[in-house]
Amino acid sequence: MRFFKPKDSETAQTGELRNTKKRATTLRLGRFNMHKVCGSFRKQRGAAAVEFAVVAPIFVLLLFGMIEYGRMVMVQQMLTNATREGARRAVLDGTTVSNVKTTVQDYLTSGNITVNNNEITVSPDPAAASFGDPVTVSLTVPFSRVSWLPAPMFLGNANMSATSVMRRESVQ
Questions:
Q1: Kind and range of the H or E run holding 61
Q2: Is there a contact between 75 and 160 (Cβ–Cβ < 8 Å)?
Q3: Is residue 108 part of a domain?
Q4: Is 53 part of a structural domain of the chain?
Q5: SS3 (DSSP) at 164
Q6: CB atoms within 10 A of CB 104
Q7: Which residue(s) pair with 134 in the sheet?
Q8: pLDDT at res. 125
């Protein structure tokens, strides 16, 4: 299609644009049925909603899994540090098992983790150990107690544990 300028000034003043670019564009757009165009947009929006409904739960599950894994690593590090602090306390002179357990519990309380006395083991008794003997402090906590989310079924009764061993010192 060729585009021509109006020949006379009268046609240009009246705004009659025959065979111009504006008219050609109008004709091209006029060929489409607006109902069909809007209908296809609705179909696309519906398809996007369905895709989101399929992908969103998987994405949320992945997000919560990453958060929970990060929490698990943090708690494991805290358990390791707590047993290390307990072992440091256990190797000193005049320390009892209850002192060691209190040290471990105090450390974990600062991280909002509660443990029972029976979950902390100290062997041998620091008061009975002689110079150079290894003293072991162990701690076992059920994962379900430290998890922010309900523990998945495949974990079952999984436990998180940490152990620290240090040699008995004698200051005397």
A1: helix 34-90
A2: yes
A3: yes
A4: yes
A5: strand
A6: 30
A7: 167
A8: 86
Q: Cα-flanking dihedrals φ and ψ of residue 134, to 5°?
A: -75, 135
CB atoms within 10 A of CB 65: 12
Whole-number Å distance between alpha carbons of 148 and 14 = 76
Tell me whether residue 1 is in a domain: no
Distance set, CA 94 to CA 99, 118, 150, 163 (Å)? 10, 22, 42, 22
Instruction: Tell me what pLDDT residue 141 has.
Output: 92
Q: What gap in Å lies between CA 130 and CA 137, rounded to an integer?
A: 16
Please check whether residue 9 lies inside any domain of the structure: no
Which DSSP string corresponds to 104-128?
HHHHHHTTT----GGGEEEES-TTT
Q: Give pLDDT tens digits for 111-148.
A: 888 898 889 999 988 888 888 889 999 999 988 888 87
- The pLDDT tens digits of the residues spanning 73-111 come to 999 999 999 999 999 999 988 888 999 999 999 999 988
Instruction: Provide the domain limits for residue 142.
Output: 34-167
Q: Cα separation of 94 and 7, whole Å? A: 113
103 token code pair: 């040290």
Q: What's the number of domains the chain is made of? A: 1
Cα separation, 150 vs 22, in Å, equals 65
Strand partners, 136: 123, 165
